[in-house]
Amino acid sequence: MTRTTLKLKPAAKTVRKAPTPRPPPSAARAPAATARTGASRPASPPRAGAPRPSAARPAGTHTPNARPARSGEGPVPRPRTPPKPLPDTGERLSKKVMQLKDCSRKEAEQYIEGGWVQVNGVVVEEPQHRVDRETITLDPNASLMELTPVTLLLNKPAGHTDGLEELTPLNAGSPARTGAPGRKVPPANARALLTPANHWEGDPTDTRVLKRHFHHLEADVELETGATGLVVFTQDWRTTRKLTEDMSTMEHEFLVEVKGEVQPDALKPIGYALKDERLDLPQVKVSVNSTTPESSRLRFAIKGSHPGLIAFLCEKAGLQILGMKRIRLGRVALSDLPVGQWRYLAGWEKF
């Protein structure tokens, strides 16, 4: 048997090399970028719309996150903080009147709302009005006895509601909102006509027009939107109770214009309908006031407020209505009040 002898070489000594220092991060990335792109390869131009590299910002600066401007757009404006309202200066007018008149705060407010106080020669009716060095004068004839509720009589135009609903921007006559084609514009509210500009110059009363006269007005008597005539607005609870509790017995007088010439015999169908117990109609008196070949005027006296009743009776007689006007409510007449204007209810007038 032959033996094989293996000769082992001595182990080489391990020599530890000193660590090679690493370049800074910025310097280490630069050769890598050069190696990827190549020194001889030209840099490609930036694509259209791509954001340009921004210059290095100093440490500590901060740019708010904002939407980058698109091509063709200008810089995005930053939202501005609204200015703070200036604080109110001076004192309330009611406090000044308290010192001037030596009265309570409630009485001072009543003097101001009554139109007895002037600031620099101008009547001011708001107790919260701020004054500082202005000249404040009180009318020597100032009295709190005139702070009584008022009642306004309006000659409502055709196409306006009777004012039983509250005043809103749409039914006050402002343009309707657009968006839906063919949308109908709501009718205007008769309350929108109760302004100092629409006060009748021929008002038989000597009542001064004040801002408080247009507050807390209540309407209780209905009138068709297509009709014109007398409408009542009141601040007096006694007038409101009269117009509601006695409405069924209060007489309403209308002048109705119909098409064509009308003879007394043409009103017989209306009489038959009023006598029909199945219809249960209120008391109505109808007569021919005037007639011409083109049109005729009928007079209706109805107990109570019944919108639509006149149209129903005219349809029974085959009459076409051209116009309708309420000229009297109880014992209060419309008289010569122009359409669209109002006046005060006089002290001697009773419903």
Structure description:
With 351 residues, this protein is of the alpha+beta class. Among the domains are: 56 residues, Structural Genomics Hypothetical 15.5 Kd Protein In mrcA-pckA Intergenic Region, Chain A (Roll), CATH 3.10.290; 100 residues, Pseudouridine synthase I, catalytic domain, N-terminal subdomain (Alpha-Beta Plaits); 79 residues, 2-Layer Sandwich (Alpha-Beta Plaits), CATH 3.30.70.1560. The protein is built from six helices and 15 strands. The strands form four sheets. Strands 6, 9, 10, 11, 12, 13, 14 and 15 form an eight-stranded mixed β-sheet that branches. A three-stranded antiparallel β-sheet has the order 3-2-5. Helix 2 crosses helix 3. The radius of gyration is 44 Å and the shape is elongated. The N terminus is likely disordered.
Compact summary:
Among the domains are: 56 residues, Roll (Structural Genomics Hypothetical 15.5 Kd Protein In mrcA-pckA Intergenic Region, Chain A), CATH 3.10.290.10; 100 residues, Pseudouridine synthase I, catalytic domain, N-terminal subdomain (Alpha-Beta Plaits), CATH 3.30.70; 79 residues, Alpha-L RNA-binding motif (Alpha-Beta Plaits, 2-Layer Sandwich), CATH 3.30.70.
